[in-house]
Structure formats: structure tokens, C-alpha cells
Amino acid sequence: MHVNKLTATLVGAAALTAGLGTAASASTATTASNLPIVTVTHDNGGVQVYTGVPGQPLLSASVDNRGICGGFSYEEGFCIPVSVG
């Protein structure tokens, strides 16, 4: 997959995660303090996307020199080595 398409996919996944987090909290009053936060960084030759609410990570995804990686909450993440060239 082309890196720009993968970046768009990662950002889309983060947006979906943010939407799911908001939907999951729909039964309670939604305030700015409990909305999911999406953080995008550009390190290690790639893009990393992290989502979470204050004090609790949700999902993470990245494509960088480690490969394509994903994680959930505090669980050990996983990476699939890939070659982009």
C-alpha cells in the first residue's frame, strides 16, 4: 500500500475510533473532558496515530521503520514488518 494511502487509512481509523468512543459515552453527558483525543505524530520515517481519553489510551496505529503497527489500550502492541520502496 502506498504510504500516503496508508496515512489516510490511519487517520480515518483514528477518526472512527474517536466516533466510537463518543458513541460509547452517549448514555452519559458528553463534555470536552471525556471526548476522545486523537494525536498524530511523524517520527521514525512514518506516521503514528494515537487515540484516547484522559488517563486511558484507546487504539493506536502506525506505519514507520518498524512496519505497520497497531495496539489497544495498555495491551502489548503488534507490528508487521514491511518494506516500502
Distance between the termini: 10 Å
The proportion of residues in beta strands is 35-45%
Query: Low-confidence parts, pLDDT < 50 over ≥5 residues?
Result: 20-29
Shape: globular
Secondary-structure element string = HEEEEE
Kindly state the percentage of residues in helix: 25-40%
Helices and strands in order:
Layout lengths: L2 H22 L12 E5 L5 E7 L2 E9 L2 E6 L5 E3 L5
In short:
This protein is 26% helix and 35% strand. The protein has 85 residues and is an alpha+beta fold. The protein has one domain.
Observed structural traits:
alpha+beta; 5-stranded antiparallel β-sheet; 5 strands; 85 residues
Describe this entry's structure for a reader.
This protein has one helix spanning 3-24, and strands spanning 37-41, 47-53, 56-64, 67-72, 78-80. The protein is of the alpha+beta class. The protein has one domain (3-80). The chain has a five-stranded antiparallel sheet with strand order 1-2-3-4-5, with helices on one face. β1 (37-41) and β2 form a beta hairpin.
